[in-house]
């Protein structure tokens, strides 16, 4: 458990910066610091929470929030599936239920980098600080977004996008298909936002449609070989 | 009609948890369909890309600062900077650009 905590310190610090900018978005959506804290505490999802808060700000339908949360977090389906292959069959269902709470990109990465079966206690140790920093950072962002000068808030608001970039660029560097996928997503996203007709779509609908269209096209044109699934 | 913020929170928390929990507890064998596995593999990259751009340009006071942060963030990640470094670099770039631009 102590090993997990030690490995997670850099992750926790990164989460603090990013969740702060998430808190600013949560405050814009009308959430209090307490509501931001608990949403982050239980969700532990950057993209998923980002889109959720954006939709709350727009007073979107509950179904749209559910659907977008599903799409934005779809990568965790894969990680959870990959993780399931690394858990000893002796690990109880209760342990699995708790471990699933904190399956994030970074905690997945450090857990999967270890050899052999995953020890639930390592995962718990690794999760403690990141969860507290993530939830605490969101709450701070909710409060401080109002107090800090406009230029500081503006600067901090890109931390979240920086994190997204850090997730998509390294795989794009190593895999040409993903590179093309990322580039065409940028271009089509820009087009969908400003071209006539398409620009009438809500943010959520735009993301859903583009995700389904581009991912399907890529899956048809370049089926991905499954043995690399562990790297997801 | 106004929506209840606690219902929003419950939906976000519930859906997020089910996505992480169900495969880990239920999945005992690999998914075989090549289209489904490929589709699931590509989804995260597309979703995150679409959410990043052009939204990053609209998040800052000056759109130009957002564009510069976007470019330098990609460059930093390409050169091997980790998540924390890319996030901080992007923030600093916006802060400095806006001092000059505004």
What can be said about this structure in brief?
The complex is a heterodimer of chains A (232) and B (102). Chain A is mainly α and 232 residues long. Helices cover 76% and strands 0% of the residues of chain A.
How would you explain this protein's 3D organization?
The complex is a heterodimer of chains A (232) and B (102). With 232 residues, chain A is mainly alpha-helical. In chain A, 76% of the residues lie in helices and 0% in strands. Chain A is built from twelve helices and no strands. Chain A has helices at residues 2-28, 33-43, 46-57, 62-72, 74-84, 93-99, 105-112, 120-147, 150-156, 159-174, 176-194, 203-221. In chain A, helix 4 runs parallel beside helix 12 and helix 11 (176-194) packs antiparallel against helix 12 (203-221). Chain A is globular. Chain B is mostly helical and 102 residues long. The radius of gyration of chain B is 19 Å and the shape is extended. Chain B is built from five helices and no strands. Chain B starts with a helix and ends with a helix. In chain B, helix 4 runs antiparallel to helix 5 (83-101). Classes of the chains: A mainly alpha (232), B mainly alpha (102). Chains A and B meet through helix 1, helix 2, helix 3, helix 4 and helix 5 of A and helix 1, helix 2, helix 3, helix 4 and helix 5 of B.
Helix content of chain B: over 70%
Beta-strand percent range of chain B: under 5%
Overall morphology of chain A: globular
Termini separation of chain B:
39 Å
DSSP strand (E) fraction of chain A? under 5%
Number of helices of chain A: 12
Low-confidence stretches of chain A: 228-232
Q: What's the story with the biggest beta sheet of chain B? A: none
Q: Which helices and strands appear, and what pairs or packs with what?
A:
The complex is a heterodimer of chains A (232) and B (102).
Chain A: H1 2-28, H2 33-43, H3 46-57, H4 62-72, H5 74-84, H6 93-99, H7 105-112, H8 120-147, H9 150-156, H10 159-174, H11 176-194, H12 203-221
Helix pairs in contact in A: 1-3, 1-8, 1-10, 2-8, 3-4, 4-12, 10-11, 11-12
Chain B: H1 5-26, H2 34-52, H3 55-59, H4 63-78, H5 83-101
């Amino acid at each position: 458990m102590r090993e997990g905590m030690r490995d997670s310190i850099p992750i926790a610090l990164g989460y603090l910066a990013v969740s702060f900018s998430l808190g600013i978005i949560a405050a814009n959506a009308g959430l209090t610091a307490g509501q931001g804290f608990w949403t982050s505490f239980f969700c532990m999802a950057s993209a998923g929470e980002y889109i959720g808060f954006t939709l709350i700000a727009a007073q979107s339908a509950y179904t749209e929030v559910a659907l977008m949360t599903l799409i934005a977090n779809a990568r965790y389906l894969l990680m959870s599936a990959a993780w399931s292959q690394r858990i000893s069959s002796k690990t109880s269902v209760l342990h699995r239920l708790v471990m699933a709470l904190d399956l994030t990109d970074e905690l997945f990465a450090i857990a999967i980098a270890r050899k052999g079966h995953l020890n639930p206690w390592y995962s718990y140790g690794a999760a403690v600080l990141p969860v507290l920093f993530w939830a605490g950072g969101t709450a701070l962002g909710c409060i401080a977004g109002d107090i800090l000068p406009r230029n500081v808030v503006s600067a901090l608001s890109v931390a979240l996008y920086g994190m997204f970039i850090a997730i998509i660029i390294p795989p794009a560097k190593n895999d040409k298909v993903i590179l093309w996928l990322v580039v065409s997503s940028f271009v089509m996203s820009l087009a969908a936002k400003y071209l006539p007709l398409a620009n009438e779509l809500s943010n959520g609908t735009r993301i859903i449609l583009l995700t389904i269209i581009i991912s399907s096209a890529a899956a048809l044109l370049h089926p991905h070989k499954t043995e690399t699934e562990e790297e997801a | 009609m106004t929506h209840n913020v606690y219902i929003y929170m419950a939906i976000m928390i519930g859906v997020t948890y089910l996505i992480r929990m169900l495969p880990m507890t239920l999945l005992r064998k690999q998914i075989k369909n090549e289209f489904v596995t490929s589709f699931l593999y590509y989804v995260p990259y597309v979703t995150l890309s679409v959410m990043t751009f052009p939204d990053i340009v609209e998040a800052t006071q000056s759109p130009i600062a957002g564009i510069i942060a976007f470019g330098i963030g990609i460059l930093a990640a390409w050169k091997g900077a980790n998540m924390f470094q890319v996030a901080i670099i992007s923030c600093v770039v916006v802060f400095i650009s806006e001092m000059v631009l505004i």
